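User: Predict the full complex structure for these chains.
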Amino acid sequence: MRTLQAALILSIGVCLASAGTAAPAGNPVDVLTFASEAEEQRFRSLVGEFRCPKCLNTNLLGSDAPIAKDLRKAVYRLSVEQGQSDDEVRAYLQERYGDFVLYSPPLRPANVLLWFGPPGLLLLGAFWWFRTVRRAATGDATDFDAEARVRLDNLLDGDA
Amino acid sequence: MNRASLFVPFAVFLLILLFGYLGFSLNDPHKLPSALLDKPFPTFEAEPLRPGGKTLRREDLLGAPVLVNVWATWCPTCRAEHDELKRLRADEGLKIVGINYKDEPSKARRWLAELGDPYDFNIQDPDGRIGVELGVYGAPESFLLDANGVIRYKRVGDVNPRIWRDEIQPILTLLQQEAGP
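Assistant: Here is the predicted structure of the two-chain assembly.
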């Protein structure tokens, strides 16, 4: 039981840690110029937010696909050259490529399971774990049926 | 351990089976639903592929239902669908406009000279900007517009006889009924 608990806690820890890892550094093929460090930072974080439409599981920042390059150019044009806000750029891409390009899609009836499924399962697991641990701690052997209990009492009381 | 809980693993197995069934019966994850369906075709201004022609605009697409086909000489599937486009033009009288996407105009002209030209005219999109406006993420892609320039259907991938029969023709018939009184 101890090892099981340790393994559970460890795996949750690993999941949480990997959620925060950084995306790969910017694509070396593009040559873009920025007026300031802050402007470049903003561009990078914005481009890292979008999913490459061609490659399913890479963001625009990390993808070599030609379409990702075009979309990086589009984001550069809108955000740096035209000075549009982050939300305007997001809306631009969403209007053209749909929810798919957003790594955090808006909450809709169609994707409720996507949003609440994983935390729901986590809660369910936590509940099961809590119950198991508590039952083990109180030593409440409810699984033991009455007939077996009588037999056990007889064995203990009798001179066997 | 009561008797009912013996069935828990079986229930979990059934649940996995259900999710597997749903997961594998989903559509191809590479296919994006078009965000532009029932939205007006974006405005643009572009050079024609045919040398010496006038600058093309959105207005040039209006007046009758038209199939806008995004293609390039570097795209093998475009070659595969080319014969079907020619057939649609010749036999079905479909108006087809091409967007020559991220291509070299000289290569594109040679392609049309060699393989035949099913297009009313072609729009050049050398840097893929019109493509981005259209939410294009590969070639070929085809858009069916109504007479008012609203996108009514989008196909990612080749146009083939089955797609024509099952998807394009029914919508086109609808659009023609809308257009005619």
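The two ends of chain A are 33 Å apart (CA to CA).
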